[in-house]
Amino acid sequence: MPNMIARTLYDKLWDSHVVRSESDGTALLYIDRHLVHEVTSPQAFEGLKLAGRKPWRVGSIVATADHNTPTQHWERGIDDPTSRVQVDALDANMREHGAKAYFPFGDPRQGIVHVIGPENGATLPGMTVVCGDSHTSTHGAFACLAFGIGTSEVEHVLATQCLLTKQSKAMLVRVNGKLPFGCTAKDIALAIIGRIGTAGGTGCAIEYDGAAIRALSMEGRMTVCNMTIEAGARAGMVGVDDTTIDYLKGRPFAPTGEAWQRAVAHWRTLGSDPGAKFDRTVDIEAATIAPQVTWGTTPEMVTTIDGRVPDPDKEKDPILREGMERALVYMGLTPNTAMSDIRIDKVFIGSCTNSRIEDLRAAAAVVRGRRKADNVKVAMVVPGSGLVKAQAEKEGLDRVFTAAGFEWRQPGCSMCLAMNDDRLEPGERCASTSNRNFEGRQGTGGRTHLVSPAMAAAAGVAGHFVDVRRLA
Amino acid sequence: MKPFRALTSVVAPLDRANVDTDAIIPKQFLKSINRSGFGPNLFDAWRYLDAGKPGMDNAARPLNPDFVLNQPRYKGAEILLARRNFGCGSSREHAPWALLDCGFRAVIAPSFADIFFNNCYKNGMLPVVLSVQEVDRLFHEAAAFPGFRLTIDLERQIVATTDGATVFGFDVEPFRKHCLLNGLDDIALTLAHADAIRAFEAKRQVEQPWLF
Q1: B204/A203 touch (CB, cutoff 8 Å), yes or no
Q2: CA atoms within a 13 Å half-sphere pointing along the CA-CB vector of A283
Q3: Which of A21, A135, A217, B122 has its CA 20 to 30 A from that of A286?
Q4: String of b and e for A131-144 (b: at least 16 CB within 10 Å)?
Q5: Separation CA A317–CA A340 (nearest Å)
Q6: Nearest Cα residue in chain B from A126
């Protein structure tokens, strides 16, 4: 009797989606929600057409254009012809096949795919959610099994509504106690990666729990789940509680009436059973977390704002040492420099990690009544969606930013990956709320330091990294 | 999909850990709506001395002589040797497409990022996991012997030097092996179970109608 065994949330989500299994454990897993964007879908639709196939269930698709779209001068459309080709291809594919919802470029509800899914209630507990984007792990905040897939798998899901995959290991990351003042979900995420490393979760699905996770809003939980892939795990998740249910109530695609009652009763079962066995458990005391800043070219190269750039000479592992040396050359940093002495050229507040209303409120609270430092060339605030932007404007946050000399932009992925015109020039240093500090990620030769929205805003007004706890 | 059975080739060693998908194919080259043509921009920021932009004549660009893949001794390599956590970062399949387009059919490393690992199989490319020590030894041999070649035999699940003096076994999931050896189309395999999918879906729609 499987019901008698204490199961993890991951087991429950997995078991409830297996259509059939091969003898080696490879399963055909049913997919409830398929999120689609313009960069990883054109080749999949093309493949479908070449094989003479049709999408299995277009009602599972929620689509938007986000990676390539400009964040200013929308009246001009998309200037870059190569970007336009991808956005036009998505338009054409949506026209031909249809979707549950499509928010094209310029639509008031357009935005980053990982922001619009949850805010429209298109991400619901108990779902399997996939997208041709590694940050699909974000949706696990709603007790979903959500993970990124490649384009061949996008085509596979379009054609069959299923994926061929194997069950991962289950890992529990418990963040105990209360998060200190000035620290956020982003600091939790970076502290976890600093602890377990960028491959620490490889082959695992991570469940987050503990008092500090439970105390987070849905926005905060999405930030933590979003960064799961940076720890090497494809899926991150948090069990359902009142915070989850309160967030979903009244969202456009959330159930209503009697269906809502039935759904809530089911969703309440979506957490790990007491005594459920995990393959690995990591405990972190929230009280030990301080505001984080990355110094290198992978998210595990991270320290606290009161820390210093590490010295590779003290690293014994030759591969790690060489990686550190290479990272410091790329980042233009000297060992033992205090993090708070590092001056910046640009600020980017946005991305699927940190572009939700709570993130913008946190940044605005720091910026209010202050001014961008003169050495900061551009401080850009890019809301995650049209709805986030409208809400922020209703609260007057846009005016707080613009009064301080920060730029208020249109929604999109923007300088997180610099596929549009927002990018770093070679050698420029950026305080960024995004998720990846890889070489060239924000522009060829650009230097990225990952931080929380409050820390990015603080760096913008100080001109260098600064402890946001002392600014307040 | 092109089947993968066995391969003997020169080995190109890329001695870096955490090689991410942005490094494999930088994002300015992802704006194509095709699966091919990414090869000339594989490892673009490391391979060329200038800043790469779409539409450039790559043949006319200055090569970085220090970058390992630009060295003549590794020309024509179909096997890439790499360090831990190869292919981390995004889910973009452009990464294996770029490697394939450049002629690589297999990557050997001590570990891979999950999504990249999976994407390789979907494109007839074999990711081979060997131990840290085994990979280390292959790096030494590739550096020491110009023209160093390996044979990767998927049927027998071995990596061997051409003289047969060194043989390392590797694991591969039986289902993935079967698909790769036979070049099977996943979608056609899955659609053979269309009735099971339909039945599952119908039941789900009754039990949790709000998901539809």
Answers
A1: no
A2: 4
A3: A135
A4: bbbbbbbbbbbbbb
A5: 28
A6: B211
Residue A174's SS3 state is strand
User: Rounded mean pLDDT of B99-127?
Assistant: 96
Q: Which of A211, A336, A313, A291 is nearest to A456 (CA)?
A: A291
B186 CB neighbours in chain A (<8 A) are: 152, 156, 164
What residues of A are in contact with residue B33 (Cβ under 8 Å)?
Answer: 42-43, 46, 85-86, 89
Question: Is residue A396 scored above 60 in pLDDT?
Answer: yes
Per-residue model confidence as pLDDT tens digits over A334-384: 999 999 999 999 999 999 999 999 999 999 999 999 999 999 999 999 999
Test A234 with B114 for CB contact under 8 angstroms. Answer: yes
- What are the phi and psi torsion angles at A433 (to 5°)? -90, 10
Mean pLDDT for chain B?
95
C-alpha to C-alpha distance for A305 and B168, rounded to whole angstroms: 46
For residue A154, what is the nearest residue in chain B, using CA coordinates?
Answer: B93
Q: Is A294 on the interface with B (CB under 8 A)?
A: no
* Closest-CA residue of chain A to B208: A263
Question: Which residues in chain B (34-63) have CB-CB distances under 8 A to chain A?
Answer: 34-35, 45, 51-52, 54
Residue A3: per-residue pLDDT: 52
**Is residue A2 pLDDT above 80, yes or no?**
no
By the CB < 8 Å criterion, does A30 face chain B? yes
Residue A1 has pLDDT above 80, yes or no: no
What is the Cα–Cα distance from B176 to B164, expressed in whole angstroms? 26
Residues B157 and B6: their CA atoms lie apart, in Å, by: 10
At CA B8, angle to CA B177 and CA B172, rounded to 5?
A: 20
A67: nearest Cα among A382, A388, A347, A452: A382
Task: Label residue A350 left, alpha or beta by phi (over 0 means left) and psi (-120 to 50 means alpha).
Answer: left
Subunit contact B204:A40, Cβ cutoff 8 A: no
> pLDDT of B61-101, one tens digit each?
999 999 999 999 999 999 999 999 999 999 999 999 999 99
User: Which residue is closest to B52 within chain A, CA to CA?
Assistant: A444
Which chain B residues are Cβ-neighbours of A127 within 8 angstroms?
211
Whether this prediction's pTM lies above 0.90 is answered by: yes
pLDDT tens digits, A99-155? 999 999 999 999 999 999 999 999 999 999 999 999 999 999 999 999 999 999 999
Q: How far apart are CA A217 and CA A411, in angstroms?
A: 22
Q: Is A458 in contact with A468 (CB distance < 8 Å)?
A: yes
Q: Which helix (H) or strand (E) holds A265?
A: helix A257-267
Give me the residues of B, 74-103, that contact A with CB < 8 A: 83-85, 88-93, 96
Q: What are the tokens at A204? A: 């695992």
